[in-house]
Amino acid sequence: MKDKVRDTYDKIAGCWKSKVWVQSSDFNARIVKFADTSGNEKSLDVGIGSGDLETSLSLADVTGIDLSSKMIEECRRLHPHFKLYVCDAEALPFDNESFDFVYCRNLLQHFEDPSKAFAEMYRVTKRGGKILAIESAVYKNETFCVTPIVRVTEPHHPEFPSHEMLRVLFERCNVGHIEQRVEGLHKKWLNGWCKSKAASEEQRKQVIDICRSLPKGYRKKYNLAVYDPPSEIESTLTFSFIKGYK
Ligand SMILES: C[S@@+](CC[C@H](N)C(=O)[O-])C[C@H]1O[C@@H](n2cnc3c(N)ncnc32)[C@H](O)[C@@H]1O
Fold it and tell me: Is 89 in the pocket of ligand 1 (CB under 6 A)?
């Protein structure tokens, strides 16, 4: 499965910056507020991609890792001063307690079981240091609605994460002072995600069909609308913002 994740992101690394589908200055501003950093922390972004989040988080000392060497190449081009490594989040090449601030955005959703990757994030965090995860997620009884959609462009995608599961990850590692918030991002997103280079006509059609077949209550709750003719999908995507201290 990791090979497929690596291949997927290697292929889209060059255009990731323009199509990070969560990209929105307002959304990033909410993350920055929630992260509440001083800027001077020794920081580690796990699954950094091309470093989109760092354009908003003003951190002086950034280390980033990613499974995709192409993402790391792109990140290096955009942020030459970062310390960047190609490696697996489940085996971080750092000593215990190396960083003051360890964070990820939309990384944990790539694992069948994210406990090992999270345990690594915890291991490399200093005592008293902060751990933050920003993950697309829905409530536990709704994962069946989203999983088929993300599996169209990433067929190997595991079950979509739930807010509850993310909290359990933090609790199991005895992270202290956990704060979790569910945040929404309203977006017209066929242009950004589904219309990406990687998506074929067939995939686009599948996504539209799945969206149309979702339970009415779910569509209402997430403001999900598919325009006719189906040129765009609009919906409120939800995320868990969750942080705590080691
Ligand atoms: C959805 S992208 C998010 C990128 C970036 N965090 C952002 O928000 O723009 C997920 C990233 O996680 C990386 N990734 C997935 N599985 C990984 C793993 N096992 N170890 C390290 N990185 C991984 C992917 O290569 C990709 O760059």
Answer: yes
| Cβ of 234 below 6 Å from ligand 1 | no
Q: Catalogue all structural domains in the chain, each as residue range(s) with its CATH number.
A: 2-185+239-245 (3.40.50.150)
User: Could you tell me which of 160, 137, 153 has the C-alpha nearest to residue 22?
Assistant: 137
Query: What would the mean pLDDT of 43-69 be, rounded to a whole number?
Result: 95
CA of 50 to the centre of ligand 1 (A): 9
Whole-number pLDDT of residue 7: 87
pLDDT digit string, tens, across residues 182-218: 999 888 876 666 566 666 788 888 988 999 999 999 9
Q: How far apart are CA 237 and CA 37, in angstroms?
A: 25
- Among protein residues, the one with the nearest Cα to ligand 1's atom 1 is 106
> Which atom of ligand 1 is least distant from the CA of 45?
6
8 — pLDDT class (breaks 50, 70, 90): confident
